[in-house]
Design a protein that fits this description.
heterodimer, A: 75% helix, globular, B: mainly alpha, 7 helices
Chain lengths: 226, 204
């Protein structure tokens, strides 16, 4: 956990995101019908989803840790990761809807992956509702950790298995390969993967700041109670 | 088992389903095939939430303590799930007969439809038993049960509706192996996570 106080990866995150901002708009991209220049959105839309998944994954990891060791700070990490994940969910949805507006014609075209994303959002809202419905701290931490772990695999199925069974406008669905040979060329990859790492790091950074604030708040409350 | 002693619960549930079907019948009269299919699953969804929500909430504290002393946690979640599965199986098959009686509709592949109902009862029982346990620990709240379980059941429900649509259109069983496989797989995942997590929920 000491790594969250280190500076180097935060600097790296900022550098990577600035690099993708610049190179994402300036580098050459393959011209494709329908997509045209909007293909550059892949540098922003997809990495944001990756960051969301990473945050939800961290949250589940810390929920498991909480159940095993019963340390209260693990629960704070889990909930702050979910809060930040929801923020990134909203970014991902907005970038996706803008992109869909220009390429598929409508912001919400009933694509299976869009619908699945909306349901995944409901799951995490349910998690937050569950948390707010319990007053007792330890009980809240325990029950919400259990729900978090229970919901995560179902969300993975929802986002990555079900859309593949039906026809979808997203690449990688309806039997198409995702991130396949003809989706991206090497010139795009040198922007895309740094973008993913950069946004994941930024997401983790926001989550750690929120965690540290919550931790300080808790400490002050405990001090005042004494 | 536990709720079997209070027979009025079962009768109440059956009456609930029949009343719902009859209300739908009186307001729809006749339906198109797609509406027929979806309506059936929505009726089953609400019946299942009502049936399974009771499995933990209705238990008194003393009785929970008694179970705690005689059985280990995995045994209890398995027993509850099996009981709910049988209960839902009974309810859904009677509901299906009644539904077929009032809404006439020709099924292309009745066997596959029955298999779908079987899988549906299984999925509802596995997911709802665990969420009802969570909801009951969080303060016996009926709304919470719906909020927690609906997003989790949606993927299964979509698969079930697709599978039953295949059955209605009379497609051969081999077309639907994918869906059946995924439904079973999700159920296996859900049951195994329930087994892992329930002990933490159980000891207080």
């Amino acid at each position: 956990m000491t790594i969250i106080y280190k500076k180097w990866w935060k600097i790296l995150a900022v550098l990577l995101v600035f690099y993708t901002l610049i190179s994402g708009f300036l580098f050459k991209v393959p011209s494709k019908v329908i997509l045209n220049e909007s293909i550059r959105n892949v540098y922003f839309h997809v990495p944001v989803w990756f960051a969301m998944l990473a945050l939800f994954g961290i949250s589940v990891y810390y929920s498991i840790k909480y159940l095993r060791y019963g340390n209260e700070t693990y629960d704070i990490v889990a909930v702050e990761a979910v809060n930040t994940g929801i923020l990134f969910y909203i970014f991902g949805l907005i970038t996706g809807m803008l992109w869909a507006k220009f390429t598929w014609g409508e912001a919400w075209s009933g694509d299976p992956k869009q619908n699945s994303a909306a349901i995944a959002f409901l799951i995490y809202c349910a998690y937050l509702v569950l948390r707010s419905s319990i007053d007792e701290e330890q009980k809240r931490a325990k029950i919400s950790s259990i729900y978090n772990i229970f919901a995560f695999p179902i969300m993975i199925v929802l986002l990555f298995v079900l859309p593949r069974l039906t026809d979808s406008l997203h690449p990688g669905n309806g039997g198409n390969p995702a991130f396949g040979k003809y989706d991206m060329n090497n010139q795009m990859r040198i922007v895309f993967w740094p973008a993913c790492i950069g946004w994941i790091l930024i997401g983790v950074w926001i989550a750690t700041i929120r965690y540290r604030i919550r931790n300080l708040e808790n400490k002050t409350i405990n001090k005042l109670n004494k | 088992m536990l709720e079997w002693r209070s027979k009025y619960v079962l009768n109440g549930l059956l009456l609930y389903v029949f009343a719902t079907i009859f209300v739908c019948y009186l307001s729809f009269k006749t339906t198109q095939p797609i509406v027929w299919n979806v309506l059936f699953w929505i009726i089953m969804l609400f019946a299942a939430v009502n049936a399974v929500a009771k499995s933990f909430i209705q238990e008194s504290n003393g009785r929970l303590l008694y179970y705690y002393s005689i059985a280990c946690a995995p045994a209890i979640i398995i027993a509850k799930t099996i009981y709910n599965f049988l209960l839902l199986l009974l309810i859904s098959f009677t509901a299906f007969l009644m539904y077929n009686l009032v809404f006439s509709n020709n099924l292309g592949n009745p066997l596959l439809y029955l298999i779908t109902i079987f899988l549906g009862s299984l999925s509802f029982s596995t997911v709802f038993t665990m969420t009802s346990a969570i909801a009951s620990k969080a303060g016996n709240n009926g709304t919470l049960m719906a909020v927690l379980s609906f997003p989790l059941i949606i993927p299964l429900l979509m698969l079930l509706i697709k599978l039953s649509k295949n059955a209605m259109d009379g497609l051969a069983g081999s077309v639907s192996y994918d869906e059946i496989g995924v439904i079973l797989l999700i159920n296996v995942i859900v049951v195994s996570i329930s087994l892992l997590l329930f002990p933490y929920l159980w000891r207080d």
